[in-house]
Design goal:
five-stranded mixed sheet; 3 domains; two-component regulatory system; Heat Shock Protein 90; Helix Hairpins; histidine kinase doma clostridium symbiosum atcc 14940; four-stranded antiparallel sheet; alpha+beta; EC 2.7.13.3; 11 helices; HisK_dim/P_dom; kinase activity
């Protein structure tokens, strides 16, 4: 029974520590207990600061009191009537307080001491007040001789930093370290959830945020996010299925059309319709590629030989280049270049790059496919190049520079960008100095990752 009781007690206590607030409060109680040891020192410093502030306020109040004793007669004569209660305070015999009263030109009118240098001195601290009486402006300066200040107060101020003040630096450092530790421990489950969320994308809509270690206050938010991800996954699945179904359904009518076109007697009409059907077939094939790409989930350990992929692409697309009086050549590394990726998807991406280059390169020129030992593929053509404004637009789906052309739907380069994103690769385009464009794909080397 005792064992059951202890287990029940642990089950009751554990949920409270799953709360983010309870964790922070509990750890801060410990931190406050430590800080309480040093709190008197901080109060001691505040007391010293308050003494200085009160001193400045008192000096200013004295200056304002003296200003009230100034009078300007009708004939312009200035008088200063100091009551007996204040004469002893500013007497030279007492020697603690001094005052100077000057006009707006700086001429000394009244003073409590015989020195002509004024009250300004390194050993004197005071206040300066400007007062307008009638049409005349006066400057009243009141100061206290620091050598006559209270001895205890003077010692506190002069010895604070030398004996006590230095301790504030390590206290602040300790508090900073404590706060960092507290919040790191408190939000560690949120970091783990964030890492999990960073893997969510169009190709990985099945990932959900964990709720086991999440603080109680954050659980409703995580649950709502997971429910939203469920709805998004359903929407993606419907969209992908529609694209795939539409593409599959279009293949059969296109095959029938191709067969019927072959029976036409007019060669010119037959060839024109044949070209149109081939263009539509290519669009359907690209739609299927996009649908497959959207559902692709890469195995982190899957590798492919980038050079073998390019050899396959160049061999399969060479007849297309020759038919258009163009050439295609494979250059670069002679040895296998192993990268992380899916062979078939890499082949589709590089095929689309090569096909795009053949489309835009001039007749009797060559398209170069160069494989780099660093995991890069460069496809160069001798076409018109790509303007700066179009370098991001060309990777968007259905974007075409010339809307009048019917030899493509603007899907090829979007497939290249999709494959690059799924492989954590980069794709870039630059213009060559002698004319033409260079598309560069960079993948992660399997050897470097290992």
């Amino acid at each position: 029974m005792a064992g059951l009781g202890s287990q029940a007690g642990s089950k009751v206590r554990s949920p409270s520590f799953k709360s983010l607030i309870s964790r922070i409060v509990f750890l801060h109680i410990i931190a406050v207990a430590v800080v309480a040891i040093f709190l008197p020192l901080v109060l001691f410093w505040l007391l010293s600061s308050e003494i200085d502030q009160l001193h400045r306020a008192a000096m200013r109040a004295q200056a304002e009191t003296l200003a009230e004793r100034i009078a300007v007669q009708p004939d312009g004569k200035v008088t200063f009537n100091l009551p007996d209660s204040l004469r002893g305070l500013y007497s030279e015999a007492y020697g603690r307080y001094q005052y100077d009263i000057r006009n707006e030109d700086g001429r000394l009118l009244f003073s409590s001491h015989k020195k002509t240098g004024g009250v300004e001195s390194q050993s004197i601290s005071g206040a300066d007040v400007t007062q307008t009486i009638g049409d005349t402006t006066f400057r009243i300066q009141v100061a206290e001789d620091l050598s006559h200040r209270d001895v205890i107060t003077d010692d506190i101020v002069s010895n604070f930093f030398r004996r006590v003040g230095w301790i504030t630096i390590p206290i602040l450092l300790v508090l900073l370290a404590i706060d960092i530790i507290i919040f790191r421990r408190a939000i560690a489950p949120l970091w783990k959830a964030s890492e999990k969320a960073s893997n969510i994308g169009p190709a990985r809509t099945d990932i959900r945020l964990p709720t086991e270690q999440i603080p109680r206050e954050i659980v409703p938010l995580v649950t709502a996010v997971n429910q939203a991800l469920d709805r998004l996954e359903d929407g993606f699945r419907v969209q992908r299925q529609f694209t795939a179904d539409a593409a599959h359904q279009l293949r059969t009518p296109l095959a029938i059309l191709r067969t019927r076109v072959e029976t036409l007697g007019d060669n010119a009409v037959r060839q024109a319709l044949h070209d149109d059907i081939e263009g539509m077939s290519r669009i359907v094939a690209q739609l299927l590629e996009i649908a497959e790409l959207d559902t692709l989930v890469l195995d982190p350990g899957e590798t492919a030989d980038l050079r073998a992929v390019c050899v396959e692409v160049v061999g399969s697309i060479a007849p297309l280049a020759i038919a258009q009086h163009k050439d295609i050549a494979l250059k670069g590394a002679d040895a296998p270049v192993m990268i992380h990726g899916n062979f078939e998807m890499l082949q589709r991406a590089i095929f689309n790059l090569a096909e795009n280059a053949i489309k835009f390169t001039a007749k009797d020129t060559s398209v170069d496919v160069e494989v780099g030992e660093d995991g890069s593929v460069r496809v160069r053509d001798c076409g018109p190049g790509v303007t700066e404004a179009e370098r991001e637009l060309i990777f968007q789906r259905f974007w075409r520079r010339d809307r009048q052309r019917s030899d493509g739907a603007g899907l090829g380069l979007s497939i290249v960008r999709g494959v690059a994103d799924d492989h954590d690769a980069t794709v870039a385009v630059d213009n060559l100095p002698g004319g033409g464009a260079e598309f560069t794909l960079r993948f992660r080397l399997a050897e470097a990752e290992a």
